[in-house]
TrEMBL record:
Organismal lineage: Bacteria, Bacillati, Actinomycetota, Nitriliruptoria, Euzebyales
Keywords in alphabetical order: Hydrolase, Iron, Metal-binding, Protein biosynthesis
Pfam families, sorted: Pep_deformylase (PF01327)
The protein's name in its UniProt record: Peptide deformylase
Catalytic activity entry: N-terminal N-formyl-L-methionyl-[peptide] + H2O = N-terminal L-methionyl-[peptide] + formate
Organism of this sequence: Euzebya pacifica
Transmembrane segments: none
EC number in record: 3.5.1.88
Binding positions for Fe cation per the UniProt entry: 95, 137, 141
Length: 179
């Protein structure tokens, strides 16, 4: 396994919709492993393939296990949202493609998806709270949507001002969830 360079805001690949995965081979599994290593090395909770320059519908994630013991993690291929709760959660959110920027972001409290694992087997996944936030954030990435598009107007203006000032180059220590 190896870490991969993470694409930062301004890279056109971040605005592109990722392609469906049709080949479930060792190359895909190696990509998922490298993405997981990259995500962990960057202290992230999720990472979409286009964030590492690969236009495949694949993301990795890691969140506290609902049992309260340790963490759960995985890789999801070709995800489709089948349910989003009307109930919304507000929380500080960041993104590995916007290092150092954290803003209050509204996301569904609960999300359900159908997807495949890295072997092509069908899976269903439900997320509540942080895991729902991770799922929604990463599927947005796969659709070419960035978290700043969900921000209130004043926060989006602040984010863009900070980006122009070069604050992505020397990010402060994270305070919210980095997805």
């Amino acid at each position: 396994m190896s870490t991969l360079p993470i694409r930062l805001f301004g890279d056109p690949v971040l605005r592109q919709r990722a392609n469906e995965v049709t080949e479930f081979d060792d190359k895909l599994r190696r990509l998922a492993d490298d993405m997981m290593e990259t995500m962990r090395a960057s202290s992230g909770a999720g990472l979409a393939a286009n964030q590492v320059g690969v236009l495949k519908r694949l993301f990795t994630w890691e969140a506290p296990d609902p049992s309260g013991e340790g963490f759960a993690s995985g890789a999801v291929v070709n995800p489709d949202i089948t349910f989003e709760s009307e109930e919304i959660q507000e929380g500080e959110e960041g993104c590995l493609s916007f290092p150092g920027l954290f803003y209050p972001t509204a996301r569904p409290l609960e999300v359900h998806i159908t997807a495949q694992d890295v072997f092509g087997e069908d899976v269903e996944m439900e997320g509540v709270g942080l895991l729902a936030r991770i799922i929604a954030h990463e599927i947005d990435h796969l659709n070419g949507i960035l978290f700043i598009e969900h921000l209130e107007k004043h926060d989006r203006k602040d984010a863009m001002r900070r980006i122009r000032r070069g604050e992505l180059e020397n990010p402060p220590a994270p305070e919210g969830e980095v997805l």
